[in-house]
Amino acid sequence: MKKLLLSLLLPAVVAAQSATSSSTSSIPLTVPGGDYAISFGIDWACDDYPQNSAPGRIDLLDSSGTLVGRVNASTYRGSGDSYIVTGTGSISGASSWVAVYAPNGTPADAGLTATWTIPGLAAGNYTVRLWGYITNDRLLHATTVWTTTSFTGGTAVAPPPVQFILTTGAGSGGTVSPGGTFDAGTMASVTAFPDAAHDFAGWTGDTGGSANPVAILMNANKAVQATFVLKSYALTTSASTGGSVTAGGSYPLGTTVTISATPDATHYFTGWTGDAGGTNPTVAVTIDRAKSVLAVFAGKAAQTITFTPPGDHANGSPAFPLTATASSGLPVSFSVLSGPATVTGNTVSVTGPGTVAVQASQPGDALNLAAPPVTQTFNVTTVVVLKYQAPARTLLQSGQATTPVPYVLQP
Fold it and tell me: Which fold has domain 305-381?
């Protein structure tokens, strides 16, 4: 037995000096509509050496008897098979064989099977018409070929699924998995891939939210866009006892944040620790990862004042200096609290007799507390004359005697 390949050749030509008779049989067929596949077979039987086969034939007619389509098929010795579809449809799944023997009268047989698919049939009743032939071929030998066409079944072909296109895109900072073509009703999964400097921010287009990956129902052509943002990192700031610092927060990668340390009245700023350094109370921090900085403060030093008492001075005496020192070495200032005097710098000028109170003070600085003020007093004296006063006299009106002070001071 020899297997022959399928080739699209011209239909069989019945040789000269031949005679052919034909007959048909019909099979009713109900089609639900749409594409329909008809499976058929053809067998040839020969009583002598076959030159070629007679054509096998199958027709499809609608309910009114109108021919919808036809298939002719032949087999040739040494040349393979030939199919001609008239009207509509296509052939698939063909398989054939030919048995050929020496030209000594030994019978030769052939056969084939195939599927004829007819697209877009309307629903309804149809008829499959099968042809049979008896061919007497006398070209080389007196050979009779009996051709039998058979129907082996019909099947509704499911239409190809409706498909939709999913288009994906990505903004700056990342990539996204490709889209493609998907059957209607399926769920397509799309994934966003941010680069090292970005985070995935969400979807725009025919889906939203920030789920990653995201599932998209393909019930239409759709397009989605993945968006990305620069990574954000936390800057944490804190302060030791004695001051405050600018609050931290979350900042995009590459941001420069300026923070400041502020001491309270009794402390001073000593410097930064953590992800910042130096002693400048204002510092710039570049955000390239999560960072933490601490502002450190120290208590100001206490100080005291040593104030030398100025001593008493006569009214009209020249200006004189005051002497006071602070334990911190900082300059001391003076002021007149009361009394007949004025002070300029550390020099006092008296303006009259009386008691003068002078205060020495030191307000402190960035490292030192204010010193407790110290007050000193001194007297401004004047020259007086001691005079005698006459003795007491008896008053005639009352008979009483007065008791005057015998001496008085008079300037």
Answer: Immunoglobulin-like (2.60.40)
